[in-house]
Amino acid sequence: MVASVMRPSAPERRLKALTPEAAASYRRDGVLFPIRVVSEAQALELRRHLESHEARTGGPIAGSMRHKSHLLFTWLWDLVHAPTLLDAVEDVLGPNLLCWSTNFFIKEAGDGKFVSWHQDSTYWGLSEPDVVTAWVALSPATVENGAMRMIPGSHGEQVKHRDTYSKDNLLTRGQEIEVDVDESRAVSVVLRPGEMSLHHVRIVHGSEPNRSDDRRIGLAIRYVPTYVRQLVARETATLVRGVDEYRNFDPETGPEFDLSPQALAQHKAITERQAQILYAGTKTKSFDKVVPG
After folding, report:
1. What DSSP state is assigned to residue 220?
2. At what angle do helices 83-93 and 20-29 cross, to 10 degrees?
3. What is the per-residue DSSP string for 125-194?
4. Can you list the positions of beta strands (E) in 213-288?
5. How far apart are CA 265 and CA 275, in angstroms?
6. pLDDT, one tens digit for every residue, the chain (293 residues)
7. φ, ψ for residue 200, nearest 5 deg
8. Could you tell me which residues come within 8 angstroms of residue 164 by beta carbon, excluding any fewer than 6 positions away?
9. What is the CA radius of gyration of the chain?
10. Could you give the CA distance from residue 176 to residue 225 in angstroms, rounded to a whole number?
């Protein structure tokens, strides 16, 4: 429901990044874009960091490394704390913010991978739908390369999903909604490098395969207010702004340097812990695909 996005005191706050019209558009539609976070040059530098790591390891970033990656790399830790990004998120969720997770969404050129129509909130086990995804483009996101498609205004209620475990579906369970989607209402979230979109945890969305000759690279950063909690079991999150008076999540620490021993150990423990929470009772036991959507 739209009302859950902002607490009653929210209209009294002075907006930091969004215009009143943009904030109202987000509340109405459940999606807002484009929002400039960093320059194109800075976004390309972030892409170079990623692809340098991939060159050293001999292939695309894979498995649990794609999940909670801000705990491994200093350049992603800095990004999830970027003031320009957090100002926009604060305008939606309020001043006390946790980064619950990060996930790389990468579609290789011509590889046929897609994301089915779904709602992010289906299996996350969070107490309230006060969750915003900031999807930051590190390469252009275009219709040709499989930009996200959103159904504006579809974020009101949770609907039933079925699990397909399709090998070409980037979602871990291959989940898809069980109701018909009016695709004529869909909007494509076209972004330049360094721009982001914000979308509500319940908005119906998906994306088509990459039919271009270049990769489509995005980082999905999931933010929650500090009052949100995990209902299944206690897990961890990163305080990125304000104060945490609720202590519903154990705190995370940033890497001293990229892939430091401390960072690798923390990341392994945290991702194994979260996989057990998110995939309890399923055949999936790790982040073997992309995202716990």
Report:
1. E
2. 60
3. -BSSS--EEEEEESS-B-TTTT-EEE-TT--SS---EEE---TTBSBTT-EEESS---GGG-EE--B-TT
4. 216-225, 236-241, 250-251
5. 16
6. 333 334 434 446 799 999 999 999 999 999 999 999 999 999 999 999 999 999 999 999 999 999 999 999 999 999 999 999 999 999 999 999 999 999 999 999 998 888 888 888 887 899 999 999 999 999 999 999 999 999 999 898 877 777 767 777 777 666 666 677 888 999 999 999 999 999 999 999 999 999 999 999 999 999 999 999 999 999 999 999 999 999 999 999 999 999 999 999 999 999 999 999 988 766 555 565 545 43
7. -75, 150
8. 116, 173, 174, 175, 176
9. 18
10. 27
Backbone angles phi, psi at 19, to 5 degrees: -75, 160
Q: Which amino acid is at 187?
A: V
> Looking at this protein, which amino acid is placed at residue 211?
R
Give which of 106, 152, 135, 105 is closest to 195, Cα–Cα: 135
Contact present, 200 and 4 (Cβ < 8 Å)? no
